[in-house]
Amino acid sequence: MFCTHCGRQIEEGAKFCTHCGARVEQANAGPRPEPVAQAASAGWEQPNTMDEEPPYEEDPDAVIIKRTPAWKIILVGVLDVVLLGVVGAEAFFLFLA
After folding, report:
1. DSSP code per residue over 37-82
2. Which comes out higher in pLDDT, residue 54 or 76?
3. Does residue 1 lie within any of the structural domains?
4. What domain range includes position 22?
5. pLDDT, tens only, 23-72
6. Rounded distance, CA 2 to CA 56, Å?
7. For the stretch 62-74, what's the b/e string if a residue is b when 16 or more beta carbons lie within 10 angstroms of its beta carbon?
8. CA-CA-CA-CA torsion for 81, 82, 85, 87, nearest 10 degrees?
């Protein structure tokens, strides 16, 4: 018995094809379909698209945004707090004297 969808041989009395999953019609009065040749045996290979250029052209005026590392942001924040503390303490003691 052959699948009417993919043409592969399946077990007698099967309700579904074990290869493509198509429902098998039991009333098969027509001629047997020939098995479908596999793509690999037909000499067809999937093209390698990784080596090709992208299908779009890059905009030379596009702005590239680079992410700032977290340690730099933390360092700037700590230096700001220290600087504000020094300036605040200096101003406090300057106006008290």
Report:
1. PPTTTTT------SSSPPSSPPPTTPPPPPPPPHHHHHHHHHHHHH
2. 76
3. yes
4. 1-37
5. 887 654 556 666 655 555 555 666 666 666 655 566 667 677 778 888 99
6. 46
7. eeeeeeeeeeeee
8. -110
Rounded to an integer, what distance in angstroms lies between the CA atom of residue 4 and that of residue 14? 12
Whether 78 is in a domain gets the answer: yes
Domain count, the chain: 2
Say how many C-beta atoms besides its own lie within 10 A of residue 17's C-beta: 21
Strands (E), 12-88: none
Q: Is residue 81 part of a domain?
A: yes
Beta bridge partners of residue 9, listed in sequence order: 2
Strands of the chain (E only): list them. none
Encoded tokens for 19: 């290869």
36, 8 Cβ separation under 8 angstroms: yes
Show the CA angle centred on residue 33, arms to residues 29 and 47, nearest 5°: 150
